[in-house]
Amino acid sequence: MRRTISDDEARKVLEDGAETVTEEDIQRVITRADDIQRKFTGHSPLGRFIDDMKIMISMIKDFWSKNYREVPWWTVGAVVTALLYVLNPVDIVPDFIPFFGLLDDAAVVSACLFFVEKDLSRYKNWKDGITETEEEEQS
Fold first, then answer.
1. Which domain holds residue 47?
2. Rounded Cα gap, residues 131 and 115, in angstroms
């Protein structure tokens, strides 16, 4: 039995999903945010991404409510795809398989974070009230 997915497979899931995300997908992430967060809690492979997940959900909520629009649509699509992938119990490796069922979820989230790191950082700075000038001075 296959136990995890490769980085290339995780990237492919993310890229394909990001291109086809709909407004309904965004709404599903927002309405199921608590369910998504539960998947990240505990001692699962997703646990190390809990802070990132909270920022991703916050960004999607702010994007949807039009409070924060300084993010490319592809980034919104990638984040929504990753979060919906985690929510799906029957993905490449079904979640009911102890421990290993969440490794593919962690791989997709990790690939997402790699692609959207700069946009998430900008969002977090905006949320924290840090201006672009202050951000450049910190670099």
1. 7-138
2. 22
Give how many domains the chain has, as a whole number.
Answer: 1
Predicted confidence (pLDDT) per residue in 60-114, tens digit: 999 999 999 999 999 999 999 999 988 875 554 555 455 556 677 888 899 999 9
Position 132 in a domain: yes
Q: Taking the model in full, what pTM does it have?
A: 0.84
- Residue pair 100/4 in contact (Cβ under 8 Å)? The answer is yes
Domain assignment present for residue 98? The answer is yes
Q: Is residue 102 part of a domain?
A: yes
Spell 83-101 as b/e; 16+ CB within 10 A means b.
bbbbbeeebbbebeeeeeb
